[in-house]
Amino acid sequence: MVVFAGQGDARRSMALLWRAESPAGARTRRWPGPKPALSVAAIVDAGVAVADADGMAALSMRAVGERLGRTAMALYTYVPGKSELVDLMYDQVLAELPTDYELTPGWRAAVTCWAEDTWEFYLRHPWVLQVSQARPVLGPNEYRALETLLRLLYATELSSAVLRRVVGALFHFIRGAAQTVTESRQAAASTGVSDEEWWQARSGLLTEMVPDFAERFPLLVRLETEGAAPDPGDAVPYLEREARSTFDIGLAVILDGIDAAIQQGR
C-alpha cells in the first residue's frame, strides 16, 4: 500500500503543518460535559496511534474519531480530511528523530549514529514507509531531519552536488532495509505463516521441480553457500536477521565510499 502525501487542499495542509495560520473553522471548540475539547494535536496523536497499532490500511477519520470518543464529522472542524491528516501524522512522528549529534569523533561516527536512529524510527512506525517519497510532505520536521543529516555530511567538505546524491542514497538505503523487516512482520501477521514455514514449504519443491538448479544458477548457489551467515540460534526471524546484516554491511560500504570521495577530492 503506497500513500501519496500532499493530496489535500494545499493551503490548508501547509497552514496546519507550519502553524502559519488557523484555517477557517480549525479552532478549538468547547464541548459541554466532562469530555476535553478536541484539537489538531489530539487528532494527529490519535491518528498515529491507529497507524502504529493497525497499519495505514486501518487509518480513517472514523477510526480516529472512535479512538477519541467522537464522530468522524467532529474531526473535520480541525483537520479537513484524511489526506491532510496523513501529512500531519508523518511530519509529527519525524519530530522523534534526534537533531543533536556530536561531530567531535568525526563525521563517520555521527552519520552512523544518525543511521541507527533512523533505522529504529522506521521500525517503530512502519506505516511511515508507506508514505511515498515522490511527494514530500514539506513540513517543518521533514526539513529539520534533512538539515540534521546535512550538518553531519557537510563536515566531510564534499561539494553540495555530491552531497545531494549522498543524502538520497542514505535515505533510500535505510528505508529499503527497514522495509524488508516491516514487510516480513506484516507477511507473517497477515498470512499466519512464518518466513521459516514459507521457505521450507517451497525450497523442497524447488529442488524437486528443478533438479539441475545448481547447474543453471551456480553463482546463486555459491552466494548462498559461501555468503550465508550462521544461524545465531535466537528467535529473530531469518529475513529480519538478513535485513539487519544488510543494514550494517551496506552502511559501512556507503560510508567507505564517502571516505574514498573525500580522499579523492584531497
TrEMBL record:
DNA-binding region: 60-79
Gene3D superfamilies xref list: Homeodomain-like, Tetracycline Repressor, domain 2
SUPFAM superfamilies: Homeodomain-like, Tetracyclin repressor-like, C-terminal domain
InterPro entries: Homeodomain-like_sf, HTH-type_TetR-like_transc_reg, HTH_TetR, Repressor_TetR_C, Tet_transcr_reg_TetR-rel_C_sf
Keywords from the named record: DNA-binding, Transcription, Transcription regulation
Source superkingdom: Bacteria
Swiss-Prot/TrEMBL GO biological process terms: negative regulation of DNA-templated transcription
Gene Ontology MF terms: DNA-binding transcription factor activity; transcription cis-regulatory region binding
Sequence ranges assigned to domain HTH tetR-type in this UniProt record: 37-97
Identification of the protein by name: TetR family transcriptional regulator
Organism lineage string: Bacteria, Bacillati, Actinomycetota, Actinomycetes, Kitasatosporales
